[in-house]
Structures are given as structure tokens and as C-alpha cells.
Write a structure and sequence with these properties.
Low-confidence stretches: 406-414, 511-556
Number of domains: 2
CATH class of the largest domain: Alpha Beta
Strand content: 15-25%
Strand order of the largest sheet: 6-5-2-14-15-16-17
Helix content: 25-40%
CATH architecture of the largest domain: 4-Layer Sandwich
Distance between the termini: 43 Å
CATH superfamily of the largest domain: Metallo-dependent phosphatases
CATH topology of the largest domain: Purple Acid Phosphatase, chain A, domain 2
Shape: globular
């Protein structure tokens, strides 16, 4: 059964899910009920013109953009995350129930929540599903994947009423276990046992349920455009990736590869490593074998060989694929069939896919950040922009130095503050910080509890995380950006400005009034004056070498 939609001929508004709708998704045994009233309602929502696919967004529509990624079926942590960031509000009595094993399935979490900010776009950069990694998401009933989609749907309807919106992208997991059910490896290794049980041990039942929600947000990528030119790119993996470079292709190279395989397959050395060793050794079998024996960092040597090779740019293919997906949906065709027909999107072919690429992260890991940023900056397609990606957990070793080292301009003050060995804080990480213009932002903060083992609900409740915030301010940006301030906002209420580059690299504290944010990010500019700053209760005079201006909070 493929994904179809209800035609927009009637041009009616989508209807929110009700208590009876939510209750109808489970049968008497707490398993998925295929005769529920939710899925027909989601199909009907496609008649609402507000859901017409459009992957290019005019920046003037939203004063603020928030981006996060990789929820991986953790409905509970996602709720807590949005509450702490003041993106949603819910009754105080209900907040404490988020980490109750049984009460988390209460429909009130979908019915009673309130979207807060106006003129704000929230983007989730893919991988909403598949909650199994080091451990599994704590989801006794196994219905978190469905609940997280129902929650986003209802919350999105609220956001639209405040001239805001929520969109999510398609990630490699969304394609390989929801939109395409042929990948048994992905399903068996990443879908939790509880979720499999909930969907009656039938991956097609699960897919036929969840894929309907992707009709409302069928995006491989999104751009936010200023004067019809992209300023912000958002994609799950990345827009660039180097191809595998081999100047020695031919029969002699293949013969040497076979000899290396005979020796090193017994030790489970990946064939990619063998090929890289052979290339670094200029197709000399003895030198390659010696390199492997000595435990040399072959990947680093190989990266130096390909250093000047230009990366692949995926944008042209992505644009064509996205336009076709939009057309399929508008013509009531099975859009997932279009995706399945594109192996470049589905398969992890040495990460050469915009949904699988980890090129940016890996460049940082092998100390080639500056080279990578220069390549992207000099690419004529990418000018004056920010690339935001998920898929690259910021706790990975590639980011180790960026999490713990001091920024070169920080004058000794800690920049990332992400060095906790227990990964108790999930951090946004940026690249190309030396550049006044180009920015790459990694927003996969390991939000899901499945990345931590052992873990408990109490530990997850207190874990802090971050979101990236792009704001349009009244100040003219010297680089011509609409979003003239970019900040990391932490669930504790701290924020850190990463653009524009400031001489003051310090964490600031948001002043809270109740559960709302009364004041937020301050833009620092060099000026030899004094400025009086008003708080929500008192006046405080701060003497500085900068005029500190305030702008609106994400809650307006």
C-alpha cells in the first residue's frame, strides 16, 4: 500500500486530532489498531492548501528559525526539550508526568500543549524514527513513533494559527524503514522490539501508518531564501561529499586488492581501508601491507592525497528530486515510489548521499575544517549562506576537540562547554567559525535516550540540550544576511552568539519570568559608550566597551 493523499479540490482546513482519535490508535491489547480515525484525518489534511509542498521559503515569512534533528523515536525527551526551551507550554501538573512510564501515553500531551512563538519556523532535520542504538528508547508500549508524529501534527496546526510552522525533513532512517520497507538490515537493527511488537511484528503495517505523515512534510531539504537566493540550507546529511579517489584503477590495482583481502579479511579490516592503503602506497602491495600492520592512521594519509579533490555537490540532483516529489503529491501519486527509485537517496554508498553524508564532520575529524570551508566558500552555488545538518551526533570523536578546546578568539574562555564525559549536555557545534560569512551548523545533539547506556528516566529528565536559533534583527548585517544573529540556545536558558563574530565569547543568561522568556539574546557591537539595560524587575547599569542591544525573544 503506497502513500496517497486527498485532493485539495475542497480547499478545507486540516482538523486537529481529538481525544477519541488518539485513543483509537490502540486496540484492547495496546497494539496498533489499523481501523483508527487518525490516518484518515491525516489524509484529509492534504486538502488544506497550507500543506502544499514548497521547499523554498521566503525569509520574510519568519522572523525566527529554530532547528534541531534526529529525534529517533524519543517522544518523551522531545516534549521535555520543547518545554524547557519555551517553544511549547503545558500545565505544570502535566509536566511532571512526562517521565512517568505510564502517563506519557496520556492523550493530554497532544491535546493540552500550546505553541508559543509567533512568526517562527521550527525545522526537524530528519530521523524521527528508529529508537534503537546502544540501548532502546524507554517506550514500554512501543507507540512513541506514532505519538511523536501525532504530536507534531497537532502542534503544527497551532503554530500555523500564529503565522508559524513546523516542518521535518526526510532522513536516512525515515527512508529506509518507513518509506521503503525492503531494507531488512535497517529495520532489524534500528527499530525497537517494543515498536515492532506494537505494529504487530509487521513492518508493512508500521510503514503504512507512519508514511502518511510524510505527505505533510515530504522534504529532502529546505532552503530559506532572501530575494530568491538561498541564505539557509537545511539537509539531513550534507550537500557535499568527496568521491572515492583512485588514480590507480586497473587490473594491477585489483590484483593487489585481492591479495590484501586474502590477508586482512581474517582480521575484519574494511575493504575501504585496504583500498586507501594501496592508494597511499601508490599501488605498492608490500608498502600497503606494511602500513596496515603498523596501525598507521591510513584515513588521515588518504585524506591528504584527496585534499585538493573537489567535493560532489548534491544540490542539483536534490532540486530535481524534490520538484518531482512535490509534483507526485500534487498529482495524487505515490511519492514514496519516487524516493525508492532513487538509490542515491536510499543507500549508504560510502556515504555518497545527501541523506547519508558526513563529509563536514569527517573533515573536522581529520583536521581539514579550513580546507573544507574554503572549498564550500569558493563554490559558486553556495554564497552568503549557512548549511545546517543533522545525522552527525556532536558527541562523536570527530568533534572531540571542538567540544573541549578553547576557540582561538575566545581569549581563554571556554567556547563549547561540551566536555562532560557522561554526555550530560547535548551541544550544537559550528564549523567555519574563523570565517565572517560561511557557517556549517551541526544540530544532532543526541536528543534520544537510545544513545546512552545505561540510562534512566531520572537522568534523561535532567539532561540539558541545545537548539540553534536564527533571528532577524533590526540591525543591518554587513554580509547582507536577513538572519543577522545566530545563537546556540540551551535548555537551561543560557545562550551563546555564534554569528556575528564577537570579541566577547561568553555565555549569557536569559532572564525568565515564570516559565516564559521575558528577554533573550543581546547583540554585541563595538562602541565606546555605556548602556543601561532593563530587566523584568530591576534596572541595572553595566559599564562596557560595547553597546548591548536587545531584541525579541522566541516567545512573542
Amino acid at each position: 500500500m503506497g502513500v496517497t493523499r486527498k485532493r485539495r479540490a475542497s480547499q478545507q482546513k486540516a482538523e486537529p486530532l481529538t481525544f477519541s482519535d488518539i485513543v483509537s490508535v490502540t486496540d484492547d491489547n495496546n497494539l496498533y489498531n489499523e481501523k483508527n480515525t487518525v490516518i484518515p484525518k491525516i489524509a484529509y489534511a492534504m486538502s488544506d492548501p497550507r500543506f502544499t509542498p514548497n521547499h523554498h521559503i521566503d525569509c520574510k515569512k519568519y522572523q525566527t528559525v529554530l532547528a534541531t534533528s534526529d529525534l529517533h523515536a524519543d517522544y518523551r525527551n522531545f516534549l521535555n526539550y520543547l518545554v524547557k526551551l519555551n517553544i511549547i507550554e503545558m500545565p505544570q501538573s502535566q509536566i511532571k508526568d512526562i517521565y512517568d512510564t505510564n502517563l506519557i501515553y496520556d492523550p493530554r500531551f497532544i491535546l493540552n500543549i500550546q505553541w508559543v512563538p509567533k512568526n517562527t519556523l521550527l525545522v526537524i532535520l530528519g530521523d524521527l524514527v528508529d529508537g534503537k542504538r546502544l540501548s532502546s528508547v524507554i517506550d514500554k508500549q512501543g507507540s512513541f513513533e506514532l505519538y511523536i508524529h501525532m504530536f507534531i501534527y497537532n502542534l503544527r496546526l497551532q503554530a500555523l494559527e500564529k503565522n508559524s510552522d513546523i516542518r521535518f525533513l526526510i532522513g536516512n532512517h525515515d527512508i529506509n524503514t518507513v518509506l521503503d520497507t525492503t531494507n531488512d538490515f535497517m529495520y532489524n537493527n534500528y527499530v525497537t522490539e517494543e515498536a515492532d511488537t506494537f505494529f504487530k511484528n509487521n513492518k508493512d503495517i508500521r510503514a503504512n501508518c507512519l508514511k502518511n505523515f510524510y505527505l505533510l512534510s515530504p522534504y529532502l531539504y529546505l532552503t530559506i531564501d532572501k530575494e530568491n537566493k538561498p541564505e539557509i540550507f537545511m539537509v539531513h546529511g550534507g550537500l557535499h561529499q568527496r568521491s572515492f579517489y583512485n588514480p590507480y584503477n586497473g587490473p594491477f590495482f585489483e590484483e593487489n586488492m585481492e591479495k590484501l583481502k586474502e590477508i586482512w579479511d581474517l582480521y575484519d579490516v574494511p575493504h575501504t581501508v585496504l583500498a586507501q592503503a594501496l592508494i597511499v602506497s601508490k599501488n605498492d602491495f608490500i608498502k600497503a601491507d606494511t602500513l596496515i600492520k603498523t596501525g598507521t592512521n591510513i584515513n588521515r594519509l588518504y585524506s591528504n592525497v584527496i585534499k585538493e579533490q573537489p567535493p560532489i555537490v548534491f544540490l542539483e540532483d536534490l532540486e530535481m528530486n524534490q520538484i518531482q516529489i512535490n509534483t507526485y503529491i500534487n498529482e495524487n501519486k505515490l511519492f514514496n515510489q519516487k524516493i525508492i527509485a532513487e538509490p542515491k537517496l536510499r543507500l549508504n554508498d560510502n556515504n555518497r548521499s545527501p541523506l547519508w553524508s558526513r563529509f563536514y564532520m569527517e573533515s573536522i575529524g581529520i583536521d581539514q575544517e579550513i580546507d573544507m570551508c574554503r572549498l564550500i566558500k569558493n563554490d559558486p552555488i553556495f554564497t552568503n549562506k549557512t548549511i545546517i545538518v543533522g545525522h552527525c551526533p556532536t558527541t562523536f570523536d570527530e568533534f572531540k576537540n571542538k567540544r573541549t578546546d578553547n576557540n582561538a578568539n575566545a581569549k581563554g574562555e571556554e567556547y563549547y562547554n561540551c566536555s562532560n564525559p557522561n554526555n550530560s549536555t547535548g551541544c550544537v557545534i559550528t564549523a567555519c567559525d574563523y570565517d565572517k560569512d560561511t557557517k556549517i551548523i551541526f544540530v544532532d545533539t543526541n536528543l534520544s535516550s537510545c544513545f546512552r547506556t545505561p540510562t534512566t528516566l531520572e537522568k534523561e529528565k535532567t539532561r540539558e540540550s541545545e537548539i540553534i536559533v536564527l533571528k532577524h534583527t533590526e540591525d543591518d548585517d554587513p554580509n547582507g544576511r536577513f538572519y543577522s544573529e545566530i545563537s546556540r540556545l540551551r535548555t537551561t536558558g543560557d545562550y551563546y552568539i555564534v554569528y556575528p563574530i564577537s570579541k566577547s565569547f561568553v555565555w549569557e543568561k536569559i532572564i525568565r519570568g515564570g516559565r516564559r522568556l521575558n528577554k533573550t539574546h543581546k547583540t554585541h557591537k563595538t562602541h565606546k559608550t555605556h548602556k543601561t539595560i532593563k530587566t523584568h524587575k530591576t534596572h541595572k547599569t553595566i559599564k562596557t566597551h560595547k553597546t548591548i542591544k536587545t531584541h525579541k525573544t522566541i516567545k512573542q
